[in-house]
Design goal:
Blueprint: H1 2-5, H2 11-30, E1 39-43, H3 51-54, E2 60-65, H4 68-78, E3 84-88, E4 101-106, H5 116-126, E5 127-138, H6 144-153, E6 157-162, E7 169-175
Parallel strand pairs: 1-2, 1-4, 2-3, 4-5
Antiparallel strand pairs: 5-7, 6-7
Bound molecules: S-adenosylmethionine.
S-adenosylmethionine (SAM) binds near residues 50, 90 and 112.
């Protein structure tokens, strides 16, 4: 929390371009899974850079993060988007009932978590059956094998997987 609080002033300037490339890869893998009825969760939403990519297509978008300072930026980012809400929560203990969201995203978050498989299971818990869970694995932290082990440990089916040299993460779209 403290480490990310410290990045709040420069996060967008330093990381926006890198993150946008991951969003693009993820949304291509998702195709038309998000529609006007969809509830979308962005776990570890940071400054909310992803909101603009889904808010217009979805019914509701919820961003959660552990860092209060990044969430304040996310609130600004949500700005006039009336269907976007943010709250402080731990990715391992999401304050939502089972099977609530149609799509759950976690961009560049798993490398922060003590047990990435457990975090992924928590994302799976709040996703609807047949919904989508999208996670990325930072290549600096996860070898391809390690990341695949994390994905496979949850039993989620891989719908799309992107690994190219322009991305600092693997991007996985999973079916819940
Ligand atoms: C590299 S940033 C990615 C932010 C955002 N997903 C993006 O695409 O720009 C990692 C984010 O994970 C958040 N984070 C770290 N540990 C967390 C936890 N236990 N629960 C929720 N969020 C966490 C950080 O505060 C930070 O916003």
């Amino acid at each position: 929390m403290k480490r990310y609080d410290l990045t709040s002033q420069m996060y967008n300037q330093r990381y926006a371009e890198e993150q946008e490339a991951k969003y693009k890869a993820a949304l291509e893998g998702l195709r038309s899974s998000i529609n006007a009825d969809s509830a979308v969760l962005d776990v570890g939403c940071g400054t909310g850079l992803f909101f603009n990519h889904v808010a217009a297509q979805a019914n509701i978008v919820v961003g959660v993060d552990i860092s209060r300072k990044l969430l304040l930026k996310a609130k600004e980012q949500a700005g006039a988007l009336q269907n976007v809400f943010v709250l402080q929560a731990d990715a391992d203990h999401l304050p939502f009932r089972n099977a609530f969201f149609d799509a759950v995203f976690a961009f560049t978050v798993l490398q922060n978590m003590p047990k990435p498989s457990e975090t992924l299971n928590e994302l799976k818990r709040v996703a609807k059956f047949g919904g989508r869970v999208v996670v990325t694995g930072l290549k600096k932290t996860f070898s391809l094998n390690t990341f695949m082990d994390v994905l496979e440990s949850t039993g989620l089916r891989i719908v799309a997987f992107v690994d190219n040299e322009n991305l600092k993460c693997y991007v996985a779209v999973l079916a819940a």
